[in-house]
Amino acid sequence: MLFFSLLYIFAQYTVVVSAINATSLSWYDPQFPALNATPREEVFARRTYFYVGGRYSNGTGGSVITDQMYVEKLEPQVVLHKYPIVFITGGFQTATVRTNLSTCKAAADFHIQNWLNTPDDRTGWASYFLSQGYIVYLADHVKRGRSPWIVADSALLNTTATGLTFVQDYFIAGERTKLWPQAVLHTQWPGTAEVGDPTFDQFYASQIQTAPNDGPFSQTVVDAYSALLDKIGASVLVSHSQGGPYGWGIGDARPDLVKAIIALEPEGPPFENQVQRTGPARSYGITTAPITYSPAVNLTADANAFTKVRVNSTDPNLANCLLQAEPAKQLPNLKKFPILMYTTEASYHAFYDHCTYSYLVQAGVNLEWLQLKDIGILGNAHFSFMEKNNMEIVPLLDMWIQATVK
Ligand SMILES: *[C@@H]1O[C@H](CO)[C@@H](O)[C@H](O)[C@H]1NC(C)=O
Ligand SMILES: *[C@@H]1O[C@H](CO)[C@@H](O)[C@H](O)[C@H]1NC(C)=O
Ligand SMILES: *[C@@H]1O[C@H](CO)[C@@H](O)[C@H](O)[C@H]1NC(C)=O
Ligand SMILES: *[C@@H]1O[C@H](CO)[C@@H](O)[C@H](O)[C@H]1NC(C)=O
Ligand SMILES: *[C@@H]1O[C@H](CO)[C@@H](O)[C@H](O)[C@H]1NC(C)=O
Ligand SMILES: *[C@@H]1O[C@H](CO)[C@@H](O)[C@H](O)[C@H]1NC(C)=O
């Protein structure tokens, strides 16, 4: 099997040797076959789709099903890994509606994730995992993309779309407006990040509307992914940004079916917004929907259940954090599987992800934090999986999964 596995990999990739400093990461393996590889061709994968979750209710026109979620399964010819990868993501150039470009408010309002090919038509991370023998699941979150939604549904009246300058300022050209200290380090976006650049236009066109990021809505997404795991069995989750809190919720709801979570710059920091806007957020620390703590927290019954402390940084390049006072309430379900949190060098998350990391450590979670700069991968922002060096990065995740998930 090993022999076949290597053959399979080399059939798809040319390996390029590069020196990366990973002294602090015990799982890092410079001999890993796909490290820094150059993808040559897409592997064949069998594609099927199905819907999960949802519930029947009586609408004005009779009985309807709502909150079901579209899922696509991509299965390579040769499956080499026991657990599939489930990307926690938004839609990919699906039936999109722009509502009102001037009302965009926050990163949480955006779903521009693209795990398939990149906007400049290079191989994406889903293809990488397929080439390495993983089954991959891609879903459009509830009420987005191919997961049906009805505009008359009141919650969707607050649907927001992505503003052009917001996308440029925070995601793909932060080095121009420098709204956080690390932004100047960004170099990896493929293209000029201007309207008229074909890569930019593809990227911007892939963005879709999204529903409000409140607790009840988030719970419908968590419920749908929980139904997915009930159907497909134990899996590894790869979440990004707003998918981060969904991933925590799914891990909390199905701790025995989540084998690991890789959280790419999960939405944060704890209890408040920073950089893009300010003020309270994520009332359950890392989530807006309720999540299991020990001792238990029910903010409806006790709005002051958390005792928060402000922990200030002496480094002006790093945010001041809101954490729990000790003894911190624990996240017992999220302790049951390993978690890799991931932050790039130049993302706005580089300013505050240490707050999320510290919060999770306080809460007793089995967590490692991969900061790309620590292993010499520089210049990425929030959408690293579609940036120029995306294929240099993704073998690290594969490596971590193979070293950690048993
Ligand atoms: C690798 O990282 C360690 C710890 O940060 C540092 O001491 C060392 O100088 C680095 N080595 C290289 C070759 O960059
Ligand atoms: C819808 O209404 C009908 C008729 O009142 C009722 O029998 C049925 O149980 C209702 N279904 C749901 C899902 O509430
Ligand atoms: C879009 O939202 C802005 C800000 O709320 C508002 O002023 C404007 O009228 C809206 N435009 C449309 C077409 O609804
Ligand atoms: C839209 O959001 C605002 C602010 O959160 C809220 O007050 C309002 O009730 C929402 N409207 C709908 C129709 O959900
Ligand atoms: C949280 O507290 C509210 C108000 O006391 C109660 O209605 C609700 O059932 C509680 N939720 C849980 C999950 O216990
Ligand atoms: C700590 O950080 C908070 C929030 O950034 C700030 O309001 C406060 O003044 C800081 N305190 C000190 C002592 O610097």
Automatic annotation (TrEMBL):
PANTHER family per UniProt: AB HYDROLASE-1 DOMAIN-CONTAINING PROTEIN, HYDROLASE ALPHA/BETA FOLD FAMILY
Source organism superkingdom: Eukaryota
Protein name: Putative secreted lipase
Keyword tags: Signal
Keyword Signal: yes
Entry annotated with the keyword Flavoprotein: no
N-terminal signal peptide: 1-19
Biological source species: Lachnellula cervina
InterPro entries for the chain: AB_hydrolase_fold, Carboxylesterase_BioH
